[in-house]
Amino acid sequence: MRILAVEDEDRLLGILQRTLKAEGFSVDGVTTAHDALEHVKLNHYDLIILDLQLPDGSGTTLLRQLRQQQRKMPVLILTARGDIDSKIENFEAGADDYLTKPFALAELMIRVQALLRRGPLIQENILKVENLELNRLTRQVRRGGKRIELSPKEYSLLEYLFLHAGRTLSRSMIVERIWTNPSKGSPISWMSILAICAIKSMKASSPN
Description:
By secondary structure, the protein is of the alpha/beta class. It has helices at 10-22, 33-42, 59-68, 84-93, 105-116, 122-125, 152-163, 171-178, 189-205, and strands at 2-6, 26-30, 47-50, 53-54, 57-58, 75-79, 97-100, 126-129, 132-135, 140-143, 146-148.
């Protein structure tokens, strides 16, 4: 699953990205409302974590813009503002949850998982192509009801292909999306991973 973190404090943004990636999420981080809107136009996000005090505008205004554009992904407000008026204003603007700073990372993760389990997203969490099924919450893949064991990188690649079914994806698009730090691994290896996914899928569908 892919999360967009909108936070103007670089240190906290880095902590959010590292924590979420450690839990298996793909994470994009931006520091302005403008960049957040641009990312949402170009990418599919399952959740947005949103700070209210951004250098180029209010996070509340950004939230209203997203809802006006019929963007239905859950939004978790992460802010130092703990007053009731701010909470009411943002929930009325379309926020799904509200967490005040300072916060415990364990609580943040619980809230993230809870938001991703909510009703409106359930159908999108189960992706299918013929008899191949990918569950984005459990990160499990099955073919014909039989589970296929994939490594985290294999899963990320397969999920990306599912989400962009019908589109032509270039090598650079795949490398940029799957390898967040290309220097720590050869980008060429995505071809090997794709082949491994195909082989495992075929094995799962073959009779014992």
